[in-house]
């Protein structure tokens, strides 16, 4: 389970989530894309406008799943009923790519959390139950999918606190400018302060890079050379994603495509192939995140 996470908006979290999900699915990997942003852009891009409306009308969204998980009658196998299957417009990816779309109603989830908390005698009892649900969600996703990719809003909304306690890893998409990098550094501190010690950072993904902008190249070089002000930034991937019209056109297209390259064109395909190989390598190099679940509650996360 990998979150695409940054507290700064406009850094291509959604774009990269969908492209990575579609590329991995085109390789034959079983992939679940989770849209955790109330704007529901990832869900709409994968399901189409009508598909998203159907999921909303049938109450098959992330909001509905999380609300159901708080019920006493929750059964993990019911998670599948909240998933929309085979969602890509790429023929050789569609069979392997599923999605849990988001809903504008996700903002109501804090109300459900408060209601559920009142059903327990102590806050610690509620957090203990919530932690068990996080573990259940992690195990279910990892048992049914090779990869779960989570598109996050630029905030620590309540669903993000839940997912931070569920996911194995996160990637920090960032534009190589000072404001975006500062937001990335702030993100790491916030995660540490909230006590999420299990989740591992795979690295910084430079996105929307414009090589004609000198500042972008300067910051990328400063980070690569371990400049003091950027020493705490997660190690960037060698592959960076430039600001490409081909990627924007691919995501905006309503057409059907036979394979990944026909949708994203050659250069973007080469970049996402290289990026996904790096992601796999870094996961292989890190300790098994699933073995590090804490049996105790996380006092500040989600409380």
Give a structural overview.
α10 (245-252) packs across α11 (260-285). This protein has 303 residues and is an alpha/beta fold. The chain has a single domain, classed as 3-Layer(aba) Sandwich (Rossmann fold), CATH 3.40.50.300. It is globular. Strands 3-2-4-1-5-6-7 form a seven-stranded parallel beta sheet, sandwiched between helices. It has helices at residues 13-26, 41-57, 62-69, 91-94, 109-118, 123-144, 158-164, 178-193, 214-224, 245-252, 260-285, and strands at 2-4, 31-35, 97-100, 147-151, 169-174, 200-209, 241-242. α8 links the parallel β5 (169-174) and β6.
What keyword list fits this structure?
globular, seven-stranded parallel β-sheet, about 300 residues, disordered C terminus, about 10% strand, alpha/beta, Rossmann fold
């Amino acid at each position: 389970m990998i979150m695409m996470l940054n507290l700064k908006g406009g850094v291509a979290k959604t774009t990269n989530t969908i492209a990575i999900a579609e590329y991995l699915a085109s390789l034959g990997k079983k992939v679940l894309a989770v849209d955790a942003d109330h704007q529901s852009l990832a869900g709409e891009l994968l399901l189409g406008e009508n598909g998203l409306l159907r999921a909303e009308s049938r109450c098959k969204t992330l909001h509905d799943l999380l609300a159901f998980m708080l019920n006493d009658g929750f059964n993990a196998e019911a998670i599948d009923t909240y998933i929309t299957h085979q969602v890509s417009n790429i023929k050789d990816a569609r069979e392997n790519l599923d999605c849990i779309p988001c809903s504008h109603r996700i903002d109501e989830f804090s109300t459900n959390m408060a209601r559920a908390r009142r059903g327990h005698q102590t806050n610690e009892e509620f957090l203990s139950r919530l932690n068990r649900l996080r573990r259940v969600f992690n195990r279910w996703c990892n048992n049914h999918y090779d990869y779960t990719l989570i598109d996050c809003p630029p905030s620590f909304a309540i669903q993000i606190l839940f997912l931070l306690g569920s996911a194995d890893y996160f990637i920090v998409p960032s534009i190589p400018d000072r404001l975006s990098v500062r937001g990335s550094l702030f993100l790491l501190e916030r995660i540490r302060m909230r006590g999420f010690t299990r989740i591992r950072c795979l690295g910084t993904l430079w996105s929307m890079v414009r090589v004609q902008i000198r500042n972008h190249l300067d910051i990328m070089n400063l980070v690569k050379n371990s400049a003091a002000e950027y020493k705490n930034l997660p190690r960037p991937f060698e592959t960076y994603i430039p600001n490409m019209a081909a990627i924007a056109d691919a995501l905006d297209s309503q057409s059907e495509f036979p394979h990944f390259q026909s949708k994203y064109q050659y250069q973007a395909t080469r970049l996402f192939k290289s990026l996904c190989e790096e992601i796999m390598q870094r996961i292989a190099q890190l300790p098994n995140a699933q073995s590090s679940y804490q049996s105790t509650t996380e006092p500040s996360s989600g409380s």
